[in-house]
Amino acid sequence: MSLTARILLSMVAAVVLGKITHEVLALPDLNETIRFILDDVLSAGLFTLIGKIFIASLKVLVVPLVFVSLVCGVCHLSDQSSLGWMSLRTIGLYLVTTSIAISLALAAATLVGPGVGANMESEAVYSAPEAVPFLDVLANIFPSNPFQAMVEGNMLQVIVFAMLVGLAIGRAGVEGERVGKHFSDWNEVIMKMVGMLMQLAPYGVFSLLFTLLASKGLGPVEELIAYMLTLIGVLLVHGLVVYPLILKLLTRLPVKIFFRKMWSVQLFAFSTASSSATLPVTIHNAEERLGVGTKVASFALPLGATINMDGTAIMQGVATAFIAQAFGIDLTLGDYLLVIATATIASIGTAGVPGVGLITLAMVLQQVGLPVEGIALIIGVDRLLDMIRTAVNVTGDAMVSVVVADAEGALDRNRYLSDKVQEKHG
To answer: What are the chain's domains?
Structure first.
């Protein structure tokens, strides 16, 4: 059985068994021994432990993988001046897709009106953390201590430092060639580690989903069904219509092959709800199966996991309109334009970790004068929706990496079109 099929099977099993376990634990007359085994031993014990180990194993590879692969990509560039154009293409595409995402979300939410008639009162409580000023976000891109950046997992700073090291190696002559070969060897070793970890993915995915559903069930889905359906609908349109159109228009490559080869990565992202944790798998998949060159994959994908949050931007757009409708507050055209600009800028400083979209949503709401307490209305279903939008995020990252690689002449089209590399490590 292929790796993708095993991951999908584990997800289905986790959903079914997790939901059954949640229903059983909700029984008032349940035997205490059975409750202890299901809740303390399995859900909160064994499977929680496996899930945490799996996530930690993914995250431990993120910084070394990004640093080593980006150094390799930059130091082996035949024309280092092309790095500037590649950076501009990548960032420009990310900002364009994010702007499209938030615009679609606001348009759909305004048309559907998921919060109309809700008549919510400001009784909900949500304490919004203080937003980092945008100028500070830009200044913090450049590291003062690269080792501290690596320890803290500050990906933008790691990317900048890796690019500087790669540029220096590429210009250091014979000594640089020797160092570059060492980095190439390390890159092969780390990619092998990613391949090894992917074999354990079905167990990690099962543990994460089972623990979530056994403890929380499906949450207050019935009360927010209109909001959820609107948000999921926009996510699907963006992921299945906007991305394929951009890919087809800019590369002329078959879209079906892209989605077939991205399926296992999307399942990874769905189960972890973290772009950063999925990053090693995304890079591995882009290089081994989509044919994206190392110099592009090692730059575009870590950058995308940090600043390209299309799924989060969609959530912010739908949630903003929903909260405004629920509290009976009318937004002007200027307010909507401000939401688009704020959400796009906020995505640059958004870390790829679960639930961070709620932090930036607070900043967006404050910009247009909406009650931040409204976040408490949607927080009950956000974990499930976070999983879906993370899958959209990583799909967008991979799509941009393919487009940029094609423009840079760093795309192996034969590998992209071939099925022979499919499940190469799985």
So the answer is: 3-417 (1.10.3860.10)
Q: Is 316 helix (H, G, I), strand (E, B) or coil?
A: helix
| Long-range contacts of residues 28-34, Cβ cutoff 8 Å, at least 24 apart | none
Contact call for residues 208 and 272 (beta carbons, < 8 A)? yes
CA distance 279 to 288: 14
Whether the Cβ atoms of residue 98 and residue 308 lie closer than 8 Å to each other: yes
Query: What letter represents residue 215's amino acid?
Result: S
d(CA 51, CA 39): 15
Q: Let me know: does 194 contact 354? Beta carbons within 8 Å.
A: no
**Which of these, 350, 249, 358, 261, lies nearest to 308 by C-alpha position?**
350
pLDDT value for 327: 82
Coil, strand or helix at 289: coil
In angstroms, rounded to a whole number, what is the distance separating the alpha carbons of residues 37 and 231? 37
Positions in the chain whose pLDDT score sits under 50: 122-126, 128, 352, 421-426
* Residues 199, 206: Cα–Cα separation, whole Å: 13
Task: Give the count of beta carbons closer than 10 Å to the beta carbon of residue 34.
Answer: 12
So what's the pLDDT on residue 338? Answer: 82
Helices and strands in the chain, H and E counts: 19, 0
Q: What letter would DSSP give residue 172?
A: S
Return the pLDDT at 218. 62
Cα 359 to Cα 154: distance, rounded to the nearest angstrom: 17
Question: What's this model's pTM, rounded to 2 decimal places?
Answer: 0.76
Cβ neighbours of 18 (radius 10 Å): 23
Specify the DSSP class assigned to residue 131.
P
For residue 158, what pLDDT is reported?
86
pLDDT, residue 381, reads 73
Provide the residue type at 403 as one letter. Answer: V
Q: Say if CB 104 and CB 194 are below 8 A apart.
A: no
